[in-house]
Every structure is written in C-alpha cells, then in structure tokens.
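Quick one, T. Sequence first:
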Amino acid sequence: MGANRNNQGTAKKRSVYQSRQIHEICRLKYLWRNWEAFTNLCYTEAGNSLQPALKRQNRNSKMRKIPNRREIIDRKQVVAEIAEMAQRYAPDSTDFRAALLKTLKSALTSGQQVVKDRFMKSNKGRPSMYAYAFLVDQVIRTIYDSATQYVYPLNNPTSEEKLSLVAVGGYGRGELAPHSDVDLLFLFPYKQTPWSEQIIEYCLYLLWDLGLKVGHATRNPDECIRLAKNDITIQTALLEMRYIWGDQDLANEVRSKFKKEIIPGNSRAFIDAKLNERDERHKKFGNSRYVVEPNIKEGKGGLRDLQTLFWLAKFVYSTNDVSELQANGVFTETERKKFTKASNFLRTVRCHLHYLTNRPEERLTFDVQSELAKRLGYTDHAGTLGVERFMKHYFLVAKDVGNLTRIFCANLEAEQQKKSRLPIPRFGLLRRKLDGFLVDGGRLNVQTDEDFKEDPLKILGLFHLAQQKDLDVHPNALRLIRQNLKLINKKLRSEPEANKMFLEMLTSRKDPETTLRRLSEAGVLGRFIPDFGRVVAQMQHDMYHVYTVDEHTIRAIGILAQIEDGLLAEEHPLSHKIMPKILSRPVLYVAVLLHDIAKGRGGDHSVLGAEVADKLCPRLGLSESETETVSWLVRYHLLMSNTAFKRDLADPKTIEDFVQVVQSPEHLKLLLILTVVDIRAVGPNVWNGWKGQLLRELYYASETALTGGHTSEGRAERARHMQEILKETLNGWNDDEISAHMERFYESYWLANSLETQQAHAELIRKAIKQNTVLTIDAKSDPFRAVTEVTVYTPDHPGLFARIAAAMSISAANIVDAKIHTTTDGMALDTFFIQDDEGNAFDRGDRIAKLKKTIEDTLKGEIHARKELSQRTKNSLPSRTRVFKATPSVLVNNAASNIHTVIEVRGRDRNGLLADLTRALFELSLSVSSAHISTFGERVVDVFYVKDMFGLKITNNVKIASIEEKLMSALSGSSDGATQNQNAKAAQRAAS
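Structure tokens:
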C-alpha cells in the first residue's frame, strides 16, 4: 500500500513535471513567434539580477547563438572588480572613475579582440555582429549599474526617477559591425529629473571615453510617439527598439503605444515613405547595382535594401523572421535561402571592410577590393583575377537583392489591396486577357502557373508583348520565370520564332534598353545568349570602366536608341545625321550587344568576340553578309578610338592606314556610331566634346579618302591650295605682310591646321610683330569640344615644349593634344589643347590668367616647374588608386608615318608625367611635331610624332634603344629603364 502510494506520488509528480515542460515549450514557441515578446528579449549573463522569466526569454534571443559568451566578457567578474573599487575609492571621486574606465576599457578591448579572432577564423559576419552587440550590451549595463549603485544611488526613488536604456537602429536589431555607431534612446517617465540627467551624462561620457561612437536621444514615451507620427526616421528607429537595461516598463510602454497609435492604418504611408527613401538613396549612390566601387551599405542591392525589407516586414507582417515570410507565402523556400545567403554575404564583407580599413568604411574602393578577395578566399583563375571573381559574386548578390525586393513589394501591394476598403479603380488595376497573358494592374502576368511549362516560348513572348504594349512585367511572372529558367534550353535557343522575337526586342524603337534589362534581371538574357551569361556581373579591375560588362552593354544599347530617336542630336550631331543612312539596323544593334561579349576569357576580347558573332548571328536570323559585318565591327570596335585619340590626324599615313582596314563607307558609318555609344556607356564622365571632335575629324578625313577625295592631290599641291585660300581672307594685309607670312611656315603647317586656325595664328603673329612682343600667349575655350586651346608664340629654344608642359602640370591643366610648329625665322608656334580634371574646358578666367602667368614665369626662369612638381608629388597623399599596376612600355614605330617616327608610351598615370617625358625627348635631341595624350582611368597612352635634329626619322637601332631606355626611366622613375622595357616586351609576347 505504502509502495503503491509512493509510486502514485512519483507518477503524479512526473505527470506534473511533464505538463510543466510541455507548457514551457509551448510558451517559448509563442514567445518566439510573437513580435512583441521577441523584441522584448535581451541578453544576459548567468548570475545577474534579472528575473527568472526574463532569463528564460533570453535563451530564445539571438544571443543564444553566441558560444562561450564569458570568453567575450565575464560581466560577473567585472562587476566584482567594480564593487571592490567602490570599497577602495570614493564612488564620486576621479580615482574611482579612472579605475572604472580602465577596467571597462580592458574588458571592451579584450572582448573586441575575441570577436575579431572568432570572425577571422570563421569568416562569418552575422555571428560576429551579434557577438559585438552582446559585448556592448554588457558594457552599457555595467556602466548603468555602476552609476546607479555607487555614483548616484537613490535611497527612496520617486515615480519620476526612473530610466530605461533602449537600443535603436542596427544596434536595436542586435547587430553591430566593428566600427558601427551605437544608437541609444534614454527613456524617462514624464520629464527629465536631475538624477536622470546625471545618469545619462555619466553613461555617455564613459562610453565616449571608451572610444565608442554613440548616437543618442533622451525622451519620454509620449514624446517618442508624437515625434514618430511626423518623422519616418523616428518611426523606423522605434520599430527596431530593443530594451537593454533599467526600467523595462518604460520600454514596454513605448512599444505598446507604437503598436496602438502608429502602426494601425499607416501601412500604406510607411511603405510609400520607405520606398521613396530607397529610391532617393539609389539616385545618390549611382542608381545602379553595377558600379565598380559600390557602397555596400547604402548602394543599390546593398545592406540597406535588405534592412528596408526587414522594416516593411515588421510594420506590415509584425515579424522580422524570414522563415515567417515564407510561411505567409511572401517568399518561396528558394527565395528565403537566397535572402539568407545575401544577408550573410553582405554582413561578412562589411565586417572585413571595417577591420581592413579600421574605420566605418562602407565603399568597396579599388584599394581594398584585392585584399578583401584574398581574405574571402577568391583566387585567380585563367583569364580572371581573384578580385574580379569576388566582385562578380558581389554583383550577383546585389542582383538577388533586387529580385527579392520586387517580389516582396509585389506581395505588399497585394496585401494592401486586400486590406483596402476603397473600391479598386477601373483603370490601371483592371484585369483583362491579352494574347494569352493577363494584364493585372497595368502589368503583364501569366494566366496560370503552368503557362511556361506548357509553352516555353511564352517566356520570351511575355517580354516581347510587354515591350509592344508599353506594359511592365508582373513580379509574379518574373518569379515563375526564375523558377523555370531551365526551360530556356538548346531546343528553345534554336527555335526560329524565339530568335525572331529576341531580335525584334533588341532592335525595337520602343526602349530596347529597358526590355534588355528586364531580360537580364530575370536571368533570361544570360540563358538565351549563354555567351552573354558569362559576362553578367563581370567587372574589370581598373579606374576606366565604371560599370560591369553586362551593364555597360545594356547602357550602350540605350544610348544607341537615344541617338536614333534624336534625343542626343546636340551632343552627337554626326551620329544623329548618319544613323538614318545605315543600311541594316539589326547589324548595328547586334554589334553593340556583342562588342564586349568575350571579355574575361584570357585573350583579345575583340578577336574572340568576332568568333562568337560568327556563330551567333546566323542563329538570330542575320544573313551571311550581315553576319560578316557584325563580326568585322566586333573585331575592330576599338580601331576608330585608338586611331583618333593616339595618332596625328593631320598625317596622311594615319588616314591611309585607317582606311585600309575600314575599306567601305558603310563600315565607317557603323564603326563611328559603335565607337560613340561604346565610349558613352563606359561611365558618366568619360565622354567629352574633345573626343567627339577627334572622331568627327577622323570620320570626315576617312570619308573623303574612301570616296576618292584628296588622295589624288599631293602634299605640296594641297599646301599651296591652303595658302591661296588663306590669302583671300587676310583683309587689310599688304602684299609684303602676306608674302612674309606664307614663307614663315613649312609645308606640314599648312596641312595640319584648319583655315580658321590659320587665320587666328596669322592675326596673333602679326600683332606680336607690330608690338615687338617676345612672348605671346593666347587662350580660347570651346565648350562644345570641351577643350581650351592655348597658343604660345615665342623664340624657339631647346626644351621649350617640356618647360611649357611642366608649367601646365603645376597649374592643374591636363594636356590632351599638342601641335608644335617652328617657323623659318626661328620662332615657335606651339598649340596645346587642355582640359581640367573633370574633362571639361579649362575656361575659368582666374585659372586662365594664372596659367598664362605660370607659363611666362617658367619660361623666364622665375619658376622651376620640375622642382615644384617633384615637391608636390612628395607631399601628396597616397591615392586609393595606387593598387592598380600598369605595365610600362615604350614602342618606337617607323611605319605609322611617312615623315615622322611615332613613339607610343604606355604606363601608370601620375602628376607631371608628360613634363618628364618631354624633358627626356629634349635630352635625346628629338624635336616633337605633335603629341597626343589619352588617359584611361589609371593608365595613360602618350604618343609623340618626332624627328631627329636633322629633321629625319630615327632609324638607327642604337638610337632607338637609347630612346626606349630614357623614356622608360622617365615613365617608371627607375634608372634601369631598358631592363624594364625588355621585361615588359617579354610579358607582352608571353601574353600573345
């Protein structure tokens, strides 16, 4: 009997214990899923003064993911040390504060190192952010307890002497990057008392002394709600509030009022405000995911976009758990995994960025990208650098973030329509059928989820119809397409109807750029044109290319369409004029699509791209002759820019060589337009009027040659012809003046300059002679060409060009072209075409005056320009572009001109480089007839047309070797220039 009673008692106890266990599990599940309970969770250590219930809640918080928390900070031990200090020193003394600060500093520094070591070992950003937030939590709690228990204790606190410490912002989410701000809200009951002011001041000063960047606000609950009603930033901050320490009832009061007074009925307004805020932020940071130096936090596709989704989820769905969004049907399991992967990747990169730069840096600048790639394990592969592979991964993640944003916003819109009590407007949101699809809210959608599986051609048909009818594509359709991308297989790619639709979309007069971008964002373009898929998110690690290859290509298509529509007629008058004369529009559009398609393959992308065109064009439906033209355009798409920017267009051999490759007027038209859109699409500040002028000059000269123009006339005849024309325009000149002026110049002068330039030179020289001026400097700006033309007329002497170039360098004027003429009576007439650092005309009056004075003082010997340049270089700060390396090389070419030796110098750009190069040419006893300077980001290509002291080409091999050695020394700053040039040439041979 006794045994039975004991057994029954034991069973009863076990049953009660099991019931309690089940009850506790259910309660914990409820807490986890309930937003208010979840946001009440805070982090704690064993042995502190929290209530048992709060401890149990804490086990469910994000802090449970942090292993061995006492290794980060043992708050129990720190509290014991502080208690001992309070016995040793008077709590209100400076000694106590100094000892407290020292202890906290030691604990914080030690904890930060532990967090960093764990991160470097694991390479996982999210746990590191949680761990650092936990560390800061414990430090803040310790400071608050020290202030309230020892420094400003209250024996009989009143109802007003309460204070609650609340985390907001990223810190409110329980996440802190290594150098992030700590955002705190100090809550008091009604009005601030002297006690609460003392506590807040004590806490803040200690936190600042610890080196933490603290953003703070002090308010009562009513103020929080009142301000939140009119300020979206405060709304967002309170949305993420998290109780840290102090009076928890105050934090609960704010949270409760926020849920009752802010959230109900305001979902639409909050959504609109956050999305507008996002759009403005995107504009500020380039409005593209594919800029090569992205802002990982604020840029398009960055962390802030993910955080915006979190904010919207909290406001509309009362959750910040992505798994609950999946449960609500917002995301599929695949999309949820992408969301988590993107979030983890971006957080990891951000932590590495903060640790690498030792500051709250958010931009992936060129100087950190390579090191980040190494830390994240990206290695070089054939044809692709590790840093390019890392950045490609980043851009693909940014693309996923964009896709998830569209899906999420579409669901938000549907949710708001369900909740809306207003009748749905009859226009815009009307659902109707159209050619096998459904028009839903002004966007094209599928009728059933099986449409694409039943007919894969509908994938392309959807975008084709959307373009024709000026409709957007519904996010639901985009989601289905991404889920069914495998349907775009070899069979569909070979389908004539599919290729016909694609070509029509590409060449449409209805905004082909937007359609291509939709196709690319959905993953369709990369699947339908697999070669294009290889360059999606492909970056080039240099300063010249602003966008990834795919983004550059799509932008180029958009610029081509704008030229055709006449939207860029003022900027590109020649391209606009010849566009209607193009025989085959598809040829041009396909060539633009394919011109960079073979980048990143380890060879000459022009040659490899031509091979891609040979295979792809017939599939797209182009004829044999059209395919041949596209292939030629891709192969030579850099020819026109290289010729225009690096060669002397006044030299007949330049035109002769160019025309020999171009061969036909149609090729010339197509190549000009392709060159223009290619340069324009590189970046926002790459194109300028000077480049446009050079391309136009090359076009007109080549057109004349191709149609049998001046080629029949010899140099002497053309020179005499130019003289006769000029004579007729020199009004007010007597015969002696005209005769003297005609005899003043050599034949090359009359062929190298336009009639307008010759007229200006004639008046300038005549005025100088009458006034007996030793030095004449004239400057005139041409905003359309984006260049300022500076003409210097003075007695010729050795090294004149080099000294003027140095003077211009210290005046911050960039020389882009120069023509050097020596008259028969020993005078120099040098013309320099200069721009400012932004690629615009050097046209400010004060800068022009300063430039003239600097040139004059340099030529008089009052300024030693080379010394000043050298000193400026020593004193200048290191550039973020120093990471880039440009292999130096010097190429001496005697085939590019009939009467000059052409020297091409390539290398890393720097201030004063041109002055050093021209100085070296002077020391080599070479006379420069013209100079052409091209800058491509960090790389420079300078071309000089030179003769020896006898006015002949340089053909002696010993002399050529001396030129190479001297210029390599000037280029690289090394005395062993010849060895470097040989090494560079060997590298080039190995690469080819």
